[in-house]
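Case 180 in the screening queue. Each case pairs one protein sequence with one candidate compound; here the compound is zinc ion. For every case the pipeline is the same: read the inputs, emit a complex structure as tokens, and attach any notable structural observations.

Predict complex for case 180.
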Amino acid sequence: MASAFTHSFVGLAAGKLVFPEKMPARFWVLSAVCALLPDIDVIGYFLGIRYGDTLGHRGFAHSLVFASFISVLVTIAAFPAIQRFSKHWWLLIVSFFATTASHGILDAMTDGGYGIAFFSPFSNTRYFLPWRPIEVAPIGVRGFFSRWGWDVLVSELIWIWVPLMLLLVIVTILRRQQTR
Ligand SMILES: [Zn+2]
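Case 180 output:
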């Protein structure tokens, strides 16, 4: 994984890009949760599932099928009042899909561990992006407050936070100009 902060931040940014208007608090909470959710597969460690298996870490829970499934589920469960198949409903699905899928994409930019099984359950092939500037984050709190944890934060700050904030600012300015 990248660090939990960065996964959540990317999830919130994806939500903001899809929905510039004011959204209910549960939308933002769920966006952050969806961005972290794929790492639920670390439970597999304790169940004896191997890293490289379909249900192993960075396997099915990091796939695009999982992200699609979660996006529909979260939208239906948390926004029952939104009319199904309306534009707003689809946008919610797009947003939660982007948020959940962003996790695997971010992981695929890290320099350690196995690749991401984006096409699971159809294929368990693990992929990395051709460009992997992010240092893989240590698992657990102790590792995080180490030199390693610091290097991770710096690499995420440079490669994720700064570019994404710039993008948000630019998109916000462009949208304001459009509505004028
Ligand atoms: Zn992950």
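Case 180 observations:
- Helices lie at 4-18, 25-36, 43-46, 64-78, 87-107, 141-144, 147-179.
- DSSP finds seven helices and no strands in the chain.
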